[in-house]
Specification:
Rossmann fold, 3-stranded parallel beta sheet, 7 helices, about 190 residues, about 10% strand, globular, mainly alpha
Length: about 190
């Protein structure tokens, strides 16, 4: 989402965009996402999410926010996966940035509510590819369709047996890396 915002404001600086496991741009897609997540989260995880979100709302310590975001990310990451690789097969996870997440997500929602995004994306002329898991809770085709209204040249590839993070998926990792590598080679700028 940040990549598209940046590209909309600085189209002359962006030569190509690869959008992977993308987020939602409208209330209907967000509702579909929430419904799909709810179906994949155990009652115990749901209770823990509510507890963590309440703590996240009231926390002020950056380190505490980072820890809470990390735990929320782990629970959601598992729920958003189709057949994830064990953590040992993955690179070291990036540290959480709770304050940065709060600021960024609040701004994303504000821009959408004000009708600024995704309309601003119509200034993007760079080649754009969206790679999206077919079996994750984010509604790929709905997100693609909302973005294509403003980025008509957006290419879309759905990945079967894949959730939200294709690089973590046992069955989709290799096809994802191959498709992305081929697309980047064809769009070297």
């Amino acid at each position: 989402m940040l990549a598209l915002s940046y590209a909309a404001h600085h189209p002359e600086r962006v030569r190509s965009l690869a959008l992977i496991g993308y987020g939602t741009y409208d209330l209907d897609a967000r509702a579909g996402f929430q419904q799909a997540i709810d179906a994949h989260i155990t009652p115990a995880d749901h209770a823990r999410i509510e507890e963590l979100e309440a703590q996240f709302e009231s926390a002020t310590d950056p380190a505490g926010l980072d820890r809470l975001l990390g735990e929320l990310g782990w629970i959601f990451g598992e729920a958003e996966s189709f057949d994830p690789l064990p953590p040992a097969h993955l690179a070291v996870p990036l540290p959480g940035d709770g304050p940065g997440f709060n600021e960024t997500w609040t701004d994303v929602l504000r821009l959408q509510e004000q009708g600024i995004e995704p309309a601003a994306f119509s200034s993007i002329e760079a080649p754009a590819l969206m790679l999206h898991g077919d079996d994750g809770p984010h509604p790929g085709p709905a997100i693609r369709d909302s973005l294509r209204l403003f980025i008509p040249h957006l290419e879309y590839t759905g990945l079967p047996r894949c959730g939200h993070t294709p690089w973590r998926e046992r069955r989709a990792r290799e096809p994802f890396l191959r498709i992305l590598s081929e697309w980047l080679a064809a769009n070297p700028d």
